[in-house]
Every structure is written in structure tokens, then in C-alpha cells.
Design goal:
With 201 residues, the protein is an alpha/beta fold. The protein has a single domain, classed as P-loop containing nucleotide triphosphate hydrolases (Rossmann fold), CATH 3.40.50. It is built from seven helices and nine strands, in the order βαβββαββαβαβααβα.
């Protein structure tokens, strides 16, 4: 596998990494393509297959593991698998894009380890675990038990922050968005006067 740059954004649920990634995708000069992850978890309301995730059964996911189809994968919660299909990254690289990921910390660090030179790994840090809990409750998409599982996991995930190339403290969203944009521009070599990158032949 060989292509453009890889931009990994990881964080505990509720930290705001998805908001950061969506903002970066809206910046045309960055020439980013979003890597859609595969998952075995049930689809939530308004989620679309192929846009938010590639939704699979547990057996389908395990078959892909057995066939070596994943760049990285993780059983994040019991029977809730998440992973990055190699074909997804190859598809975006073939379009001449730099690939951006919105994935959990374990998957993010695995990509960094496999592609150390091509990858910028960014950890999005929330103000506090208490603030995370408030944000997750506001979503109203999961039960209290699920939220408590995510909070327990967040404490472990926060401890991995120093293993990432950069840490963005998402205490003020506008500041975090601008910091993320500058980090990506610096990494992929976009200056204020740079034209849009041409697609690779």
C-alpha cells in the first residue's frame, strides 16, 4: 500500500473528534478523503451504510479478519468490532486524496505504527471526564449503561494521549478547529498560497 498522507484523529467518545474531522473535510485545500470504518455494531437512526460506517454482521466481520482484509481492527466492546478495510484506504489514495480517520485510540496508534512516516496521529482531549459524560447524555443515542461503559473506557484512553504526535485540547471548539487545520496543513505541506493539489496520475 502506497499513496498520500494519513491523518488519524482519535479520542474518547464525546471529545469532539467527529466535529473536528467534519470541519477538516470541508476545507478543500487539504484534499482530504474520509476513511469509512467497518463495524459490527447495530446501525443507529439516520446512519447510512457506506457513509457513516460499513455495517456488517459479527460473522462477516470475522471473515474479513480471517482473510486479512483489515489495515487495523479492534473489538472495542464485546461483539462490537471496528476496523479499517485496506480497500477503503486504497480507494481514497487512488483518487489522489490524503486520508483522514475518525477512529478509536487503539486503531489510531496501530495505523501510526504501520505507516510512521506517512501518518499524523492527533489525540483530541476533552476538558474533563465529567464534561464527556454531559456530552454523551445530550446525544440521547445510548442507554445509561452504554454511557457508563464509554466513560470507564475514556479514562484508559486518556492515558494514551502522550503516544500521539499531537494533542489538541478541545476546551473551546473554534480554537480546536483552527489548531487542527493548521496541524494538517503543516503536515501535508499546504501554505496559504498553495493551489489545490493535483490528483495523482
Amino acid at each position: 500500500m502506497k499513496g498520500g498522507k494519513l491523518l488519524v484523529f482519535s479520542a474518547p467518545s464525546g471529545s469532539g473528534k467527529t466535529t473536528v474531522v467534519r470541519y477538516l473535510l470541508d476545507q478543500p485545500e487539504l484534499n482530504l478523503g474520509f476513511s469509512v470504518s467497518a463495524t459490527s455494531r447495530p446501525r443507529r437512526a439516520k446512519e447510512k451504510h457506506g457513509e457513516h460506517y460499513y455495517f456488517m454482521s459479527i460473522s462477516e466481520f470475522k471473515n474479513h479478519i480471517k482473510n486479512g482484509d483489515f489495515l487495523e481492527w479492534e473489538e472495542v466492546y464485546r461483539d462490537n468490532f471496528y476496523g479499517t478495510l485496506k480497500t477503503e484506504v486504497e480507494r481514497l489514495w487512488a483518487e489522489g486524496k490524503n486520508v483522514i480517520f475518525d477512529i478509536d485510540v487503539v486503531g489510531g496508534l496501530r495505523i501510526k505504527k504501520k505507516f510512521p512516516e506517512e501518518t499524523l496521529a492527533v489525540f483530541v482531549k476533552p476538558p474533563s471526564v465529567d464534561e464527556l459524560k454531559i456530552r454523551l447524555k445530550k446525544r440521547s443515542t445510548e442507554s445509561d449503561d452504554k454511557i457508563n461503559m464509554r466513560i470507564a473506557k475514556a479514562s484508559i484512553e486518556l492515558a494514551t494521549a502522550p503516544q500521539f504526535d499531537k494533542i489538541i485540547k478541545n476546551y473551546d471548539l473554534d480554537t480546536a478547529l483552527e489548531e487542527a487545520k493548521q496541524l494538517v496543513k503543516d503536515f501535508i505541506g499546504v501554505s496559504e498560497s498553495t493551489e489545490l493539489p493535483k490528483k495523482k496520475e
